[in-house]
Amino acid sequence: MTTGAPSADSLPPVALTMGEPAGIGPDIVGPAFDALKGEVPFFLIGDPSHLPDGVAFAEISAPSEALMADHLPVLPHGFGSPRRPGLSQADHAQHVIAAIERAVELTGSGEALAVCTNPIHKKALKDGAGFAFPGHTEFLAHLAGGAEVVMMLACDGLRVVPATIHIPIAEVPSTLTRDLLAQVIRTTHAALIHDFAKPFPRIAVAGLNPHAGEGGAMGYEEIEMITPVLDGLRAEGLDLIGPQSADTMFHAAARAGYDAAICMYHDQALIPIKTIDFAGGVNVTLGLPFVRTSPDHGTAFDIAGTGKADPSSLVAALRMAHQMGRIRQKRRT
């Protein structure tokens, strides 16, 4: 392989998984390397034959070699059969899973700084390898020994955490317990300190109902559940704002008053961040013993292999993984 100067910050590189080969993961890794060369060292775990024609890559035998790579560094993991853009293959499922496990292993050993994952296709993994997890987040929590984790979506202008995620709206009030909300807020608070270098985090918390219930006129969850949780956490020293009406939390002046927003359900959190930065949002798993980020999009089978995929979210995810990993490393020294 051709080599250049080592990375200036001398940190280990980020481990990037290919994700579902039939999706856009293989299409965006080359452009991401070009965008981040000299700034964020990373290496890909996957099958080099799945990369589109024309992508310059260099096979490596150890993550440290990625620090000096002039071309996309690939730690080879053979998938056994060619990629078919847009069409998942059952025999690839076990290799997709193994690549994730390898990234976590290398991060745990200190050979990689953080994990960044390209999108997977849950049904393909279930059909091809009996994958028993709803998605990446739950699988990574399992690999971390059952860690309590939460999902954050982040961009330059906003960080949001949904307390409940992929459930019907009708199930949100019964799922949103005091214990769950307290755990989500505590995990977010700790991550803002340890991963985002916010020593005194300010966290805004949305209400569940319109106008945060308006004193009980539009619902009692704020009075009976959310406010008592916030008061208890404030007594522990957490700086919390709310419960607030979600329709006034996300304009620019409001966002300047907090470091992260806790929302009660999926769309309450994701609509504002996707409005602010649709292409550059990053999915971050908080509560793991290692840093993990991912682009905030799916496999996009419909455009895989066409050259139309936008690498912006992957670039942002790799950059954030590097920044968070650097903060963790600094805290250890």
UniProtKB/TrEMBL annotation:
Keywords: Cobalt, Cytoplasm, Magnesium, Metal-binding, NAD, NADP, Oxidoreductase, Pyridoxine biosynthesis, Zinc. It is found in: Cytoplasm. Its EC number is 1.1.1.262. It catalyses: 4-(phosphooxy)-L-threonine + NAD(+) = 3-amino-2-oxopropyl phosphate + CO2 + NADH. Substrate binds at residues 136-137, 274, 283, 292. One of its GO terms (cellular component) is cytoplasm. The keyword Zinc applies. Binds 1 divalent metal cation per subunit. Can use ions such as Zn(2+), Mg(2+) or Co(2+). GO terms for biological process: pyridoxal phosphate biosynthetic process; pyridoxine biosynthetic process. Pfam families: PdxA (PF04166). Pathway: Cofactor biosynthesis; pyridoxine 5'-phosphate biosynthesis; pyridoxine 5'-phosphate from D-erythrose 4-phosphate: step 4/5. Its cofactor is Zn(2+); Mg(2+); Co(2+). GO terms for molecular function: 4-hydroxythreonine-4-phosphate dehydrogenase activity; cobalt ion binding; magnesium ion binding; NAD binding; zinc ion binding. Homodimer. HAMAP family: PdxA (MF_00536). Belongs to the PdxA family. Catalyzes the NAD(P)-dependent oxidation of 4-(phosphooxy)-L-threonine (HTP) into 2-amino-3-oxo-4-(phosphooxy)butyric acid which spontaneously decarboxylates to form 3-amino-2-oxopropyl phosphate (AHAP). The active site is located at the dimer interface. This is 4-hydroxythreonine-4-phosphate dehydrogenase. It comes from Aliiroseovarius sediminilitoris.
